[in-house]
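Case study 2.
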Amino acid sequence: MLLGASDLANAQGRRGRGEERSQENQTERDQRQQERQNRRDEQQAQQQQRWEQRRQQQQQDNQQQQQRWEQRRQQQQQDNQARQQRWEQQRQQQQQDNQARQQRWEQQRQQQQRDSRDSQERQQRWEQQRQQQQQNRDWELRRQQQQQDAQRSRQWERDNNRNWENRRDNNNRNDNNWRNNRNWQFEQQQRAERYRQDWQRRQNYLYDRQRLLEQQRRLNQLRYQQRYLEQLRRDQLRLQQWRYNDYGPYNYRYRRGGSYYETNQYGAEMLQRAINDGYEEGFYAGQADREDGYRFSPEEAYAYRDASYGYDGYYVDLGDYQYYFREGFTRGYEDGYYSRSRYGRYSNGTYSILGTILEQILGLQLLN
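Prediction:
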């Protein structure tokens, strides 16, 4: 019984200790599980905290990015508005400039039309005066011719009373002198008539040329052409008073195209003036084309086509005068277009060709 009681006690003791150890083990397992749970919770909390921090940082970055984008958008809008304002100002300024240019051009065109009408009216009046004066001159020439014929008839009757031999010699001598003078006078009148006919042809070209310059808006060349035309009109008024005068024999010769031609002192001086006047007119024409931004083209100028400014007296042929005028014109045009003084010089308000150049062109020589 004692042994049994002892075994029972031992058995109970062992069972009690086993339960105690089992409880301890369960407690340890619970603690370890709680620790693992705590660690997991702590890790989740840390992970949640890090995620929240990243989320907040991302929100801040997005806000900053949004702010920068909004600033750039506003800046772009301001720049676009500024560009639009500048463009609008430029457009308005350009419209104002175009309107101003259009108004100036319209005023100039109207002024040119008025000038053209005035020129046509003056030309018509001048043509009527010229025709009337031509009729008067023709009548005066016929009257003078009749008087000369009557004088010769009376002279012939008086001479019949003299010795027949003396009368024959005197008549032959007088007749030769009269014929020479008459032929020279008739030649000058023919030159005058050719000049008047050529003048009408040049007038027709003038009107076509004026319309072309208006279309091309070459205002400087148009103003120069009108100035040249006004000088021609003054020439015409002066030439209406022309009368034949004997300026002496042919005592000069000049060179043209490899050949020599003779003229008197008046004709020699007129050819020199042709070269000088041509140079000055060419200088102004070249300067006008340069200011208009037009190409180098002296042959298109009306003054070059006309080439009769300064022609008077009719003691050289018009073709010769025009030839030397154009020789001076082309050199003056080149100096005026390139703004230089290669062939001439400026003095006392006028442009004139150099003496050495004039001598090379004309080759004038005094005859014995």
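The longest strand covers residues 252-256.
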